[in-house]
Amino acid sequence: MATPSELHFLFVPLVAQGHMIPMIDLARVVAGRGPRVTVVSTPVNAARNRAAVDGAVRAGLRLDLLELPFPGPRFGLPDGLENVDQISAVQRELYYPFFKSIWAMAGPLDAYIRALPRRPDCLVADACNPWTAPVCDAAGVPRLVMHCPSAYYMLAVHRLTSHGVYDRVGDDQTAEFEVPDFPVRAVGNKATFRGFFQWPGVEKEHRDVLHAEATADGVVFNTLRAVEARFVDAYAAALGRRTWAVGPACVAASIDDDADAKSGRGNRADVDAGEILSWLDARPVASVLYVSFGSISNLSTKQLTELAFGLESSGRPFVWAVKEAKSDAAVKAFLDGDSGFEARVRDRGLLVRGWAPQVTILSHPSVGGFLTHCGWNATLEALAHGVPALTWPTIVDQFAGEQLLADVLRVGVRSGVKIPAMFLPAEAQGVQVTSADVEKAVEELMGPGPEAEARRARAKELAVEARAAMEEGGSSYNDLTDMIQYVSELSRKRGLERETSSTAAAAVASPAAELRGKMNGEKIGADASLSVQS
Ligand code: UDP
């Protein structure tokens, strides 16, 4: 059996921030245990994640980025569109060619693996990258599937599907149901519990996702048993596959004292991290609310201004990552000018117009609350930093994140959002939370009182548990040890099987070599353009 340092892992994240970032965090954690890890990427995504990888290399870890060309232009996408966050809410028609392009990366990945002097020991694929399954099968590479959402959400979607609840409610997006056979009482509707790829036009891709998971050598969750053991175990039992909970991987980024790697996590920040830190240094402990809706969720202009007025009237200091300011002229006009929002809140509000160094901000002791869209990474980052949440979900798994934070862990205050804004009548203009609602919720979260104190205390306890899980002897540390050992054994076994079958194949002169040159209907081979960088 190979020792960890003899192992080579390939990580294949989905090209979306909420997937690339945790997989690079986890790649770093795995590299910290000895193996060499290569993260498969594309030019735009590699550039965004260069700082984090460079930081890991400076720390002596064997982590590198492989850049495969992104075939978007072949499917009609503009050159350079390589990440989900580059598709705006009004360009939904681009999703289909975008996913077609991702699927077409199988050829270059296959060529890369074949060109390696030694077969990798394991490929860890995002669950949304099922096109890696035939590549691994052909090359005899063990394959694990990693889920970037919570186990709570994945189990809920699994139960709703297997119990026929989605079928029963049909097209009715708002018919309320309770998730059957679930460890806790969870109520929602189709709009708030929609699964990934459960939308028209991607039925084949959805089948690929389910098949790739059902045939994987194991399943990895970026979570911790202290928070999600019931959901992880039920999911593992439902699927009948080895499953590991190895997170929260963000702890690795959080405790990193390499300031550049930390502030450049996921992208170059649109603000000087040092400036934010000085601003936070000047504020009392736990007094600042951090506001962010992640990488892809945008508020309507009307909803955004309601939020702004609520923050203004709350009187509390805040840092707000307003990415809409980069693309929405109306938002920019609202923020700008002598009597604009930014000028009015200058003494206590700091706006980041674009990408914020989120973990740098959340690590600061002055931050005492997080108004979050409840993406799973944001949720884990809130937990890992002991920061209670003001929950404001917008799409897919975020409503499950809100339930976990508010109902199960009791570290969240709800904003009052009920449903994704796309299901609201046009006259609502995307507004579900008024400025008065914002003001009230901010006060409930950040203000005094026994409930707020208890919430803060629970958040601190969870942060201790999150960090302990990742430390030597912690549950996630032990799960990762087990996962690496399992991979080592499996890789040796697969290698032996391959040797035996290739000897047999050579003896009967099969046409396998010729067949191996084709995959998914395309010609692949050493001529596929590749570049490996570290
Ligand atoms: N993020 C960041 N700066 C930003 C916005 C997001 O660093 O301005 C990071 C955040 O820390 C998280 C990831 O991007 O790790 C977003 O993932 P999440 O699951 O929270 O939300 P998504 O963007 O997938 O909706």
SSE arrangement:
Layout: E1 8-12, H1 17-31, E2 36-41, H2 43-58, E3 63-67, H3 95-103, H4 106-115, E4 122-126, H5 132-139, E5 143-147, H6 151-162, H7 165-169, E6 177-178, E7 187-188, H8 203-214, E8 218-221, H9 225-239, E9 243-245, H10 250-254, H11 259-263, H12 273-281, E10 288-292, H13 301-314, E11 318-321, H14 324-327, H15 329-335, H16 341-344, E12 349-352, H17 358-362, E13 367-372, H18 376-384, E14 389-391, H19 398-408, E15 412-414, H20 435-446, H21 450-470, H22 475-508, H23 512-516, E16 518-519, E17 522-523, E18 531-533
Parallel strand pairs: 1-2, 1-4, 2-3, 4-5, 5-8, 8-9, 10-11, 10-13, 11-12, 13-14, 14-15
Antiparallel strand pairs: 3-18, 6-7, 16-17
Uridine-5'-diphosphate is lined by residues 17-18, 21, 265-266, 292, 294-297, 321, 355-356, 358-359, 375-378, 381.
Provide an overview of this structure.
Strands 9-8-5-4-1-2-3-18 form an eight-stranded mixed sheet, with helices on both faces. The protein has a six-stranded parallel sheet with strand order 12-11-10-13-14-15, with helices on both faces. The chain contains 23 helices and 18 strands. The model is unreliable at 509-534 (pLDDT under 50). It is globular. The chain is an alpha/beta fold. α4 packs parallel to α5 (132-139) and α13 (301-314) crosses α20 (435-446). The protein has two domains: 1-149 and 217-267 and 476-509, Rossmann fold (3-Layer(aba) Sandwich), CATH 3.40.50; 269-470, Rossmann fold. Bound molecules: uridine-5'-diphosphate.
